[in-house]
Amino acid sequence: MKKIFITAALLGAFSNLSLAADIRPYIEGQLGWSSADDVDTKAYSGTVSGVAYNGRVQVQTDSSLSGGVELGVSNVGIENFRIGASYNRAQYDMSKVLAIGSLSYHGSTYAGSVDVTSNLRADGISFDNSVNLYMLNAYYDIKTSSPFTPFIGASIGLADIEHAKDNEFAYGVSAGAKYNFDKNIYLGVKGSFTRVNGATDKLGIEYEDIDLWSAHALLGYEF
What we know:
- By secondary structure, the protein is mainly beta.
- Helices cover 10% and strands 62% of the residues.
- The strands form two sheets. An eight-stranded antiparallel β-barrel has the order 1-5-6-9-10-11-12-13. Strands 2, 3, 4, 7 and 8 form a five-stranded antiparallel beta sheet that branches.
């Protein structure tokens, strides 16, 4: 329900803006790669799924094919300024899980940094997660005398993480460039950094903030 409300509010805002004479709506497809920095849990003592430990867990993930779509408008009353609402999805599969601290597992005790990936997989425990980002973006286009337009941006929104209890606040920055082949169609590239507030998963484990990086090719149409 929360996501439906946010989407409806954004579409309503764009509808109101489109009443202005110079407003130019656009739609943009995005495809590329995303990666996540190593994700640490908060310091924790206890037992989860048969693993007793005093310390933290670090989850490392593989890079992922990612993509999405953005709807937006330019010429919104401030020169070279545009806003957009975007949806992006990526799948982050665990490549390694390290237990850092003191850990007891199947009758053995370990100290330091221990790779427990194979043990967790054998017990059917996975830290694989899909992440859906619902973001409101603001961009400043750096106009040139050519069809080539660099831009910088900032974003706020929500991250829907597959195994998290709740959606989390997300914010980020981006930079890129686009090339207009005519007054309607453009190609471009965009690199983004997004920080997601620390989530709590369905096992009750709390995580530190999550840093996501992405690079996408863009294909857009301006109406």
